[in-house]
Amino acid sequence: MNQDEFYTELDKLFKKNRSDEVPAYLEDYLKRSKEDKPALVMIYNEMMGYYREKSEYDKALSAARESERLMEELEYTVNGDYAALMLNIGGVYRAINDFDNADTYYERAYECYRKLYSPDDYQLAEYYNNAALLSEEKGEFSKATEYLEEALRICKLYENTDFQIAVTYANLGASEIEAGELDAAWEDISNSIELFSCMGTNDQHFALALASMGRLCWLKKDFAEAALYYERALPMIEGYIGRTRGYNRVLDAYNEMLKDKEAYTKPVKAMDLAEDFYLSLIKPMIHGRFSEYEERIAVGKAGEGSDCFGFDDKVSRDHDFGPGLSLWLTEADFKEIGEDLAKAYSEAYYLYVAEIYRKRFPNETNISSEVNDVRAEGRTGVSTISGFFTKLTGYPDGPLTDEEYMTVPSEGLAMATNGKVFRDDLGAFTRVRSRLMEGYPERAKLIMLAEAIAKLGQAAQYNYPRALSRGDVYSAALIRYAAVKEAIRVIYLLNDRYMPIDKWLFAGLEKTKVLVKAKGLAKKALVMSDNDEEAPIILEKLCMLILEELIKQDLVKSGNDFLPDTANWIFVRAELNKPSVEELAEYIAKQEFTAFDKVKNEGGRANCQDDWTTFRIMRVSQYLAWTKEMLVQYILDFKDATNNGRNPITEKYGYMMESTVPWEFEKIKSGLPIVSEEKRAIVDAVCKIQVEWMEAFAAEYPGLAKNARIIHTSDDKPWDTSYETYLRGEMFTYSQTMLALYTRFIISLKNCDQNLAYKIMENTVHLYGYKDLKSAMEKNE
Fold first, then answer.
1. Which single residue of 134, 343, 617, 724 could bond 713 by disulfide (Cβ 3.0 to 4.6 Å)?
2. Strand partners, 328
């Protein structure tokens, strides 16, 4: 085999970034040289190095074993080729962190080199470079530096060794960085980069030097320069050897540098200062001077100011910026220690500013704005729990009723629930705060949502296009701003968050997860020109995104795109949340009886259609066992059906006929809403659970059960409808949302080992005047 030709062509592939063609090239030479063992050793040696750099270690080890086997057959034990092979095999084991085997092969190589060459022989420089890499992997950086300095000394004795010198400088600099010798590393890596640049080299060795310089700049906090070096190194490595482990190491270092840059250059937040102040001085001060009250003092940072929201930045540092925090006490405790605690807090504050702050945050600017600004007064320091909530909400315990919640400005509630509580062993402060953090009560939320949606629709869908059609651009601009403000209010409400004051609206929106696209449209709508033909379209798109979310959250039904009409529907839902479960149950029974009165039977009017007393007891007994959410949804669905000319009671009895009088069912089924197979499967599964419950009830209270319906569909007669069939017919009339609520309700009862049949029958006997099931059973035996 012509070695010169082999290496020339191989070098061309690497220089032209065609390294993916190398395996095929080497395999081809293996086939052509299968009888030439020295040539095979050389090819396997190249394979070994290639696959090691590519992180394909199994292939590298396979090539190593073949080359070692061939060496033994050739009986090469003390020559240059054998030493180079041992060094290369050691490099493979080094790459997979098998340091024991790596040491073995490196020692063999060294023994061979030592016997063959003088201490200044160029071949030993290669050994020292590789031995240094192994030492680096083992964390022995001082030893690695010694090896590399010796390699560099040897290389400088020879001519035409610039490449090897550059590689050695790069390796030496990398080791010196890890050894903490940064000045030496800077000099050596600079030499390496200069040599590589003069030679026009563009391979992984030059990339190592660039990455090492990037590391040095990073350590010096020169992040811009560090990024430039890493960004030069990465494509160089990828182009030469691909995205291997070596590439990933440099990429990981680059990403870590970017994180460090962000952490270093990002200004510290006042919340971080406050927490550091608490841990440094306030916590030990309370423990030492107020130990008797230690578990009664709540500490945190919350309330007024952008810093309590985490929105503080360089601009907001002109006032009220610093480590200030709050200590909240009960009224009684405030009378006893309030004054002394306030004095101790003030002393600790000035001590922190004077002696601790600069040491902890050396890159930060002055925090005197909080110390000297009167606007900071009352925002931090010692106060009562009731005083804090009264100041922000108007109520010492925060709002409690729906009406109170609706009268409190949303920004006050936002401030009462922002920030962070560092400690509250007593829990008095947190109890109020945690309740407020749950968001608006359902009814209050729905009323406010209805109002905001109505205003949004009136402005965006009606007033805005009319103002534009008149050419009244001034009114149009005001209306557009008002529409966007109401859209933002809706977004906050649908995310169950309180809306802050205007300057923090969009900063607060960044923390919301619902209506993400709507946020973008709101921003666009604010800055667009009213002369833009797309302006009304953008506002309409914003309205439709909100409508889609309302439908998604089952707050309204689809069909009406005019938001004020949608708002009316939400307001109805809100008002249904006001009555009690008992009142809602009675309301439903009356609505159903009205609908029942209109049901037409084949054989004429049924007696039960005139028996309000029994009807009421049967229906109210069932609904008293439901949740308010289920009752509200059922009422809304019932209203929707009747508004569209349907009678859910007629439909319920129609579905029952599929089992009781199937021949009659065939005549009417086309007039009933289609029940999907999926819905049937859900209904059957829920029925199965409830039938088992009714069986259990009948077994325990047979005297009561005999007066109820038969249980199983299999026992249906035209004149006798079973409990199972009745239940199935009723659930077939439920909307998708109602069925989902009902299914979850049944499953939750089953998981808690509760029986709905017992609950309903208990309600029934109570309505009939009995004390309990046992008393009713005794009367019916």
1. 724
2. 298, 383
